[in-house]
């Protein structure tokens, strides 16, 4: 399982989310077709661009609740004061990806930043 975790400011566009996902996948020679899903914090459920990106890519969007984000927060690679303040986690994109990818998940690297959107890629087990 490969999951792209998404964090963003309010009101981002579909194009920004899609560009962030593609940008985050590029260093690992992965394409959106290799993804099993997108993930974000449950508090981002109202961000239509994330839901639309899942629809466009034909992927489920996992909405991860606060306790699940907290369980994996020590495995994240980035510490953002803004994310800690807004979501109570060091990085929404990293922790959402880790939580959605499963118990044995790991990040391929730190989140990437694309304008107002962050994206992190997590894999479960030995993938890829």
Automatic annotation (TrEMBL):
Q: Is Transmembrane helix among this UniProt entry's keywords? A: no
Tell me the keywords, alphabetical order: Hydrolase
InterPro entries attached here? CbiG_hydrolase (IPR052553), CobE/GbiG_C (IPR002750), CobE/GbiG_C_sf (IPR036518)
Record-annotated CobE/GbiG C-terminal domain positions: 2-122
Enzyme class at the top of the EC tree? hydrolase
Question: What's its EC?
Answer: 3.7.1.12
GO MF term (any one): cobalt-precorrin-5A acetaldehyde-lyase activity
Q: Return the protein name.
A: Cobalt-precorrin 5A hydrolase
Q: Which organism is it from?
A: Aquamicrobium terrae
């Amino acid at each position: 399982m490969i999951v792209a975790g998404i964090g963003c400011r309010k009101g981002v566009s579909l194009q920004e989310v899609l560009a962030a996902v593609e940008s985050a996948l590029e260093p690992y020679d992965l394409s959106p077709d290799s993804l099993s899903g997108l993930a974000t914090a449950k508090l981002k459920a109202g961000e239509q661009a994330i839901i639309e990106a899942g629809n466009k890519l034909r992927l489920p969007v996992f909405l991860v609740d606060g306790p699940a984000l907290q369980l994996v927060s020590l495995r994240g690679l980035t510490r953002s004061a803004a994310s800690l303040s807004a979501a109570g986690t060091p990085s929404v994109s990293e922790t959402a990806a880790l939580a959605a990818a499963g118990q044995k998940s790991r990040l391929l690297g730190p989140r990437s930043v694309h304008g107002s959107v962050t994206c992190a890629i997590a894999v479960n087990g030995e993938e890829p």
